[in-house]
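Researcher: Here's the sequence for the chain we discussed earlier.
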Amino acid sequence: MAEQWIVGVDLGGTTTKLAFINMNGEILHKWEIPTDNSNEGQNITTNISNAIDQKLVELKEQKSKLIGIGMGAPGPINYETGVVLNVVNLGWKDNFPLQESLHSLTELPVVIENDANCAALGEMWNGAGKGARDLVCVTLGTGVGGGVIANGNIVRGINGAAGEIGHITSIPFGGAPCNCGKSGCLETIASATGIVRLAENELSKAEAKGQLAVIFAENGKVTAKDVFDSARNGDELAKKLLDEVAFHLGFVLANIANTVNPEMIVLGGGVSRAGDILLDSVKVNFSMFAFSAARDSTNLALATLGNDAGVIGAAWLIKNKLNL
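Model: Thanks. This is the structure I predict for it:
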């Protein structure tokens, strides 16, 4: 039987990533298109369908080679119907029938999942968590996303809100306001945005000095990468900021481990590119707060798939649905 492919789609607010993926979770071809959120997002699924058809023509392949489309989309989703309940940056009105729309255009089976959950599934299938059936993936980017996998299945909860790790309260009183409407969420500390906020609060003080202060004085701003690079070079303020981020991240991850006892906790997203300087510090705090049985059985690791995690996890949705 000829090799068949799965289409993995990672829908973002500005860019949509697409890939043809084989049954082993390996990307064969990948590309991306702009996400057109004009006209209430009515062009999004049409553009995805056209992009798939155009790539098949380019590769001189028939559509019969494709067995389905898995897609990761931002926001809460009705997993039975593939309806996106509400998304602020795609132009869609509430309750957009994403699965139905894409299926009608492509005539292929379609499965929709939250994008952070897809990243977790990707790392489980063919990334840092390969072989693990109990896994937590935390994506540290502009915000903090999370996916919880138990016995190979995504934990969604009664209203699809399971895995909202970024909105676990880490500072109960006096924390910074979060976009979710609460304050003191982990996202306000451990996201790239949160790290920059912490840094610039300190750097605005007159006594700030060191490498990070020089960068701030020259550019009028700093990035999360600047913080980690400066900490690596021994900058005292940057090390203090790293310690604060790692404390809160380790504290929250320990309590997650105490609750679900995963085999692995995988850190992904742009902030995770800080590497071992972040991971090692998080591990110290995790060990301090985790129950001994959870501490001794849960391994913390950096994600390995990078920006490919979403499309690989999305493809897994189809493989799992069709029991392939």
